[in-house]
Automatic annotation (TrEMBL):
Residues 5-390 form the RsdA/BaiN/AoA(So)-like Rossmann fold-like domain. This is NAD(P)/FAD-dependent oxidoreductase. The lineage of its organism: Bacteria, Pseudomonadati, Pseudomonadota, Gammaproteobacteria, Alteromonadales. Residues 188-337 form the RsdA/BaiN/AoA(So)-like insert domain. Its cofactor is FAD. Keywords: FAD, Flavoprotein. It comes from the Bacteria. PANTHER family: OS12G0638800 PROTEIN.
Length: 392
């Protein structure tokens, strides 16, 4: 029987960070993961450069049934604390946009940082370990695993969400929660591309690769960022962001959020009356996007001088309020995160400990706290992991 003070299940962002904190307090800690490699999502993240936090992270950047829950952890361990740690390791980074901090070189530097923190504090990290059984007993928790039996005082579940099963995602954390009578809120894919009905997918697929800054809106939430047209549907930051708020309805896409197209069209009609609408739109959008928009929105492709005020208003409205009803999303296969999860009402926001099961903790993405795109999800992993690390 292997005896530990703390067992952390899941060697991802939250689990490794929590283990290092707990071990630094002198606790005897071991992290167990079923995968061959630790931190696989970190390695894939941010296009291989890991968007490890966001300078402007605050509770407003997170979705949760209880929007207040994340505040305590985010305040106890802030983005500035993690940035200081990244600085200690001499990892070079830059702000890409909107406060998003990325490594200059490689996401592997963040995994190295976490593993180095674990080594320094003597936290063990064990991979290729299947957890077969978890039970509560008088001394804490008993675990039966493919590498033998374990007994620990505190058990931390850091197994993440369901997105990207190829990277080792499993519903393990939700099952442990349910085993201990802790509610799990329905899960769905977030930060995920939209798929489209055939009649719109086909013409857009022909111009896949084109990107346009848009304002994507649904459910009273909007993001002004780039939208990318793909051969499967719509992606890019604006779409990934709004996908987390999408519940099946139409999404409003303003294709020209920074320019009043009605005013611009009126001016263009005065200055270049013989220019066709398509050629005018090719000065606002990529040429092939302009052509496709004229076709799918059935815009009148005539010289601007032939368009009356009512028509110009209608054209501008169509481009500012393009309504698209996605067929669905690409699902967990390509989603960056999982919405929903372990109900925060069942956890202490100060420690992440389960209210009904002393010694049992849930951290990271397995919890019903989901960040926007932009480094927020890793910040939640660091903050929730740090908090639990002080109490296990
Ligand atoms: P994580 O998923 O990191 O770790 C869970 C661990 O548990 C894994 O090691 C897994 O193998 C293990 N595990 C699962 N089931 C198990 C079981 N049954 N037994 C044992 N072990 C088990 N966020 C961000 O802020 N900035 C970014 O740049 C990106 N980029 C990004 C790109 C891609 C492609 C994806 C898929 C996701 C992102 N994210 C992101 C989101 C971010 O990666 C995610 O929110 C965090 O990794 C969550 O950290 P956790 O530690 O909670 O789970």
């Amino acid at each position: 029987m292997n005896k530990r003070d703390v067992i952390v299940i899941g060697a991802g962002a939250a689990g490794l960070f929590c283990a290092a904190q707990a071990a630094a307090r002198g606790r005897n800690v071991e992290v167990l993961d079923h995968a061959k490699k630790v931190g696989r999502k970190i390695l894939m993240s941010g296009g291989g450069r890991c968007n490890f936090t966001n300078m402007y992270a605050s509770a407003e950047n997170f979705l949760s049934e209880n929007p207040h829950f994340c505040k305590s952890a985010l305040n106890q361990y802030t983005q500035w604390d993690f940035i200081a740690l990244v600085n200690d390791y001499g990892i070079a980074y830059h702000e890409k946009t909107l406060g998003q901090l990325f490594c200059d070189d490689s996401a592997s530097q963040i995994v190295d940082l976490l593993m180095s923190e674990c080594r320094k504090a003597n936290a063990r990290v064990t991979t290729r370990c299947e957890i077969l059984q978890v039970e509560k007993n008088d001394q804490g928790f008993y675990l039966n695993t493919s590498l033998g039996e374990y007994q620990c005082e505190s058990l931390v579940v850091a197994t993440g969400g369901l997105s990207m099963p190829k990277l080792g995602a499993t519903p393990f954390g939700y099952k442990v929660a349910q085993q201990f009578g802790i509610p799990v809120l329905p899960t769905r894919a977030g930060l995920v591309p939209f798929t489209l009905p055939p009649e719109i997918k086909a013409p857009l697929a022909e111009i896949s690769g084109i990107s346009q800054t848009v304002r994507a809106q649904c459910n009273n939430t909007a993001f002004v960022e780039d939208m990318l047209i793909t051969h499967r549907g719509l992606s890019g930051p604006a779409i990934l962001q709004i996908s987390s708020f999408w519940e099946g309805q139409a999404v409003d896409i303003d294709l020209s959020p920074q320019t009043d197209l009605h005013q611009a069209l009126v001016q263009a009609r005065e200055q270049q009356p013989n220019l066709s609408l398509k050629n005018y739109l090719a000065t606002c959008f990529a040429k092939r996007l302009a052509e496709t928009l004229v076709n799918i929105l059935a815009l009148p492709n005539v010289p601007l001088k032939q368009l009356n005020e009512k028509q110009l208003t209608a054209i501008a409205d169509q481009l500012h309020q393009w309504q698209i009803k996605p067929a669905g999303t690409e699902g967990y296969r390509t989603a960056e995160v999982t919405l929903g999860g372990v109900d925060t009402n069942a956890l202490s926001s100060k420690t992440m400990e389960a209210r009904n099961t002393p010694g049992l903790y849930f951290i990271g993405e397995v919890v019903d706290v989901t960040g926007w795109l932009g480094g927020y999800n890793f910040q939640w992993a660091w903050s929730s992991g740090w908090v639990a690390g002080q109490h296990v």
